[in-house]
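In this supplementary section we document a worked example of the pipeline. Step one takes a protein sequence of length 251 as its only input; no multiple sequence alignment statistics are reported here. Step two produces a three-dimensional model, which step three serialises into structure tokens for compact storage. The input and output of this example are shown verbatim.
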Amino acid sequence: MTVDPKDLTLLIRDKYAGDTNADMREDIERLASGEPLAYVIGWLPFLGLSVRLDSHPLIPRPETEWWTEVLIEHLRTKYPGPEKCFVLDLCAGSGAIGLSVLSQIDNAHVSFAELSPLHCALIAMNTDENDLDVNRITVRSGDLFVPYEGEKFHIIATNPPYVPSDRELETSVVQFEPKDALYAGPDGLDIIRRIVEDAPAHLLPGGELWMECDIENIEQAQQSMRVRGFQSVEIRNDLYGRPRIVVGYFS
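The serialised model returned by step three reads:
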């Protein structure tokens, strides 16, 4: 497999600070094997943060960065402070969503729920690497809401696994990114159904669930939220004009 010259340019810029004489042989071999550029570089930018990927979580996509920015603008309006705004980043992975909120919303306290202890350690690392306020975060490992039993939030933001199990993805994704962060049963809704079922018990009055979904199952996710009692549920298009997130408002 040949290496895209654009990837080499980014590798030199972002990993070797422009040093064209650096020994990149191992990195070039990794790229030639199909490993994603973000893993080879070791980090990627996300709303002004440098998000490390040492534990190989799901690589944050532009679609996720887009709706996270929309969420932050919403938080500035709805929760201007000084009262605390409690946010849960569910299925947190690298922590990119919650850490972006933390970096831009001064009155936000952000909790992270992530199944993998290695990813939890990565979230702590990314907090330190970006010089963010460790006093306004909580990081716990466990299955979905289990680490936060009995706790409630103003906002639950999540990019859960949502790919149908028979969907063919790019080789670089299937071979290198964590399958448990991608696939979620025959229709891709196994995890989403669990989130929708349990989310109301973890939302404060007037709370909201922001959830990234697959284009093919987002309407089913919307209907599930309506059935579960969300007052209103909106589907919003991403930066490419495709239906990408569903936002549910709970009374």
